[in-house]
């Protein structure tokens, strides 16, 4: 399986369990690795036979900026399901970063990583 990766997609969302997170919002960062067979697209040099990563990026940003959820686990699942709506995508790895998480000790990042595939 071939891989198309998008790294560092940024969007402001209002996800979290605390009222301050919901009210103020924060920046979330998403990394994606899309698994697909790129041979048909490469053979014909045809965008319609692969995944349009620009469209995927816009859709992922819309999910992050959209309806708030409590958990980044839920957010990652929604992103994965959105990616799998594209016919060419057979599997997806989603990493959601929450670098502004409300943690009381110094830290660099909080992430969740999930992998989903067509069943």
Structure write-up:
The chain is α+β, with helices and mostly antiparallel strands. Helices cover 32% and strands 31% of the residues. The chain has a four-stranded antiparallel beta sheet with strand order 1-2-3-4. Helix 3 packs antiparallel against helix 4 (72-84). The chain is elongated, with a radius of gyration of 15 Å.
Descriptive terms for the model:
119 residues, alpha+beta, 4 helices, 4 strands, 32% helix
Approximate helicity band: 25-40%
Task: Give the beta-strand count.
Answer: 4
Alpha carbon gap, first and last residue = 16 Å
Q: Would you tell me the structural class of the helices and strands?
A: alpha+beta
- Indicate the proportion of strand residues: 25-35%
Mean pLDDT: 97
What can be said about the biggest beta sheet?
4 strands, antiparallel
Whole-number radius of gyration? 15 Å
Shape: elongated
* Total helical segments: 4
Low-confidence stretches are none
Query: Biggest sheet: strands side by side, in what order?
Result: 1-2-3-4
Order of helices and strands: EHEHHHEE
């Amino acid at each position: 399986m071939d891989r198309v990766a998008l790294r560092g997609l940024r969007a402001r969302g209002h996800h979290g369990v605390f009222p301050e997170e919901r009210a103020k919002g924060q920046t979330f960062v998403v990394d994606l690795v899309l698994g697909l067979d790129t041979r048909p697209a490469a053979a014909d040099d045809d965008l319609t036979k692969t995944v349009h990563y620009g469209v995927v990026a816009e859709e992922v940003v819309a999910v992050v900026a959209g309806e708030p959820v409590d958990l980044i686990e839920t957010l990652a699942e929604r992103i994965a399901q959105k990616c799998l709506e594209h016919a060419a995508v057979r599997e997806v790895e989603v990493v959601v970063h929450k670098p502004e998480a409300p943690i009381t000790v110094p830290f660099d990042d909080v992430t969740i990583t999930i992998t989903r595939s067509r069943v």
